[in-house]
TrEMBL record:
Pfam families referenced in this protein's UniProt entry, alphabetically: Na_H_Exchanger
One MF annotation (Gene Ontology) recorded for this entry: potassium:proton antiporter activity
Superkingdom classification of source: Bacteria
Designated name of the protein: Sodium:proton antiporter
Amino acid sequence: MEIIVLVVALLAVTAVCVAIGERWKLPYPILMLVATAAIAWLPWVPDYLIDAELILPLFLPPLLFQAARTSSWSVFRTRWRTLLMLAVGLTAVTAAAVAGTVLWLVPGIALPLAIMLGAMVAPPDPVAVEAVAGPARMPRRLLTVLQTEGLFNDAVAIVLFQAALGAVLAGQDSLGPGILLDFVIGAALAVAIGFLVGFLYRVADRAVTSVGARTAVSVVAPFAAYILAEEVHASGVIAVVVTALETNRRARASDGEARVTRAAFWDVVNLMLTGLAFGLMGIELRAVVLAEGTDILGYAMPAVVVCAVVIAVRFLGMLALAAATRRTDPLPRDWRESFVLTWCGMRGLATLALALSVPTFATDGSLIADRGLVIVLACAVLLATLVPTGLTVGPVLRLLGLQDDGSVAAAEIRELTGRARTAALGAIRERFGESEELSGEQMRMLTKRFEGMRREIDTQTQAIRAVRPDGEPLDPEAAQKAAEQAAQQAAVRKKVAKGRELMAVAQTVGLDAARTEILAARSEPGVDPEAADHVLRQLDLQIMAAPPRSRSKKH
């Protein structure tokens, strides 16, 4: 019962934080973290202990799945150098730098434990980035870098953490030499599992007609990919991301109603899970403080130094990325963009979950020394990179003149809309031929003519009702004329109905072609998946508003 009360309470606080965030232009996940961390200290609030091993399996699959669905394979093909440098290179370098710093600050700490700390604090959180940077109107090109990096750096960090954890539990002073090979094998298995689950997802999705059931399939998919990958000691993170990308690649134009329903459902799920995740972070921070007691004050100096190292390494990494991409597509372009990408390197769910999963005892039953230090330092980095930065992303973007005015996205949406219009008109011409081509002007004329005829028919119908009580017409000649007019009007109604049906069918043919074009464009290099999704959603809504008869016709 306690867990139900906790979930309901956190959802209620989430709703309040969302309302406050919208009113004051603040990111609600940060408000959730601060609010729950404060509420947890109230004397009447009971202690809630969350199994650390459940945090990642419960929250990471759906949140990663939703984040990855806003991307596409073309983004990874275009940005593969950036992906390798940030998700793999920068994550490993950050972990090594933090481990070296801790070894220098804390003489006697075991090397594997120091590497565990480095792995905990190395990966920025894609969930935090998505929730904070997007509403702050960060330029889309920078947000894409952060999203792409965040989808895979957790995988690198988790593999490194697990290797170091094995050494700590075994009482060893170093890591095994096969860590790189283990990562490569695990990543390859995860990719294969992601493709398999993505294929099974589409099979199941096409086998059912219920929109609700198809939405349920989208909920099962990320958990299935994650659990299956973890069971074979592969990367659950990579498996979920590949599954999400595959489900997008296999999308069909005719899936409009299910696509709109799923999008609305996942928007709600994403908000609820993000609120729950950040709320649990706030609650668990209290448990960390209570566990360490007054010893936590002695960790202040190492915490400040480690936070500074994490931020400095990320800034240097962004400068290195700018130098490496200068000849092709420079990203970041200057020190301002490097600073913003550094400022938005927020740690979150993975950092907390890994920190809380550090065991108290080794395999032989001995106490793991410096465990408390490692957990406190990880939480310090989480707070330092999440709260002040998350609350100031918007002002920093405005100060540096980098806040997005929406012009780039608008231009791309206009271009995609033009492509959709061209595809729609081409499909209509091909279907109906030049002689029956329905231009926009003809459609408007047909609608206007129908409205005029409807008023005329109504007026004339009233005239025909001028009969005697016995049913005989007042004027036989007028009755004959009215009958002829009625026949003409019936022919007009039939013609108009046929015209309206033809127009509706033509609209459906055009919208189907337009959606097919946008789905193809979404996979093209250089096309922003978010812009394509925006146009696709508008087309889906239009087809859903079309007459049911025209939607049901086979094309």
